[in-house]
Amino acid sequence: MATTIDAPRAPYSSAPRHRGINWEKWGWVYMRASGVVLLILIFGHLFVNLMLGDGIKAIDFAFVGGKWSDPFWQWWDVIMLWLAFIHGGNGMRTIVNDYATRPAMRTILKGAIAVAVVVLIVLGTLVVFTFDPCPANGLPSELPDFCSTL
To answer: DSSP string of 61-96?
Structure first.
């Protein structure tokens, strides 16, 4: 009993491209490199937050406020955020390239992914770098308990 496998779909022209930057190759390289760096960042993040100190019981608003008062941890979290969103966006782009058959739909979906990634990166970065658990002009009744001791 012989079986045959259908030829794979070619979402683009079957003619090979030889000019310009090979974005697919660099996307593939990025996925491998960012995956390795993300493993280090994520497991470091989990180890510091869960294994050191009191574990999960210690994670609250004050813990995050104290952690983000140190520029090292701000940058650690921002690098992790950026790599994770770009890694995920690139993965979604690959899925769209594989399954969206109409060029217009492919362009719309990839544009939506790019906008979502950029917006979320900007918002996440702003949160990390502008986070202030004890704003100077905040009402004392609305501030966390630990702000009254500062």
So the answer is: HHHHHHHTTSHHHHHHHHHHHHHHHHHHHHHHHHHH
The kind and range of the H/E element at 147 are none
The distance of Cα 74 from the centroid of its chain, to the nearest Å, equals: 15
Assigned token pair, 119: 């917006």
Q: Which pair of structure tokens corresponds to residue 127?
A: 């949160």
* Tens digit of pLDDT at every position of the chain (150 positions): 667 766 666 555 555 656 788 888 888 999 999 999 999 999 999 998 888 877 788 787 778 888 888 899 999 999 999 999 999 999 999 999 999 989 999 999 999 999 999 999 999 999 999 988 777 777 777 666 667 655
What CATH number should be reported for the domain whose range is 27-133? 1.20.1300.10
Q: What is the value of pTM for the model shown?
A: 0.75
Domain boundaries, the chain: 27-133
Instruction: Region of 53 please: left (phi>0), alpha (psi -120 to 50) or beta.
Output: left
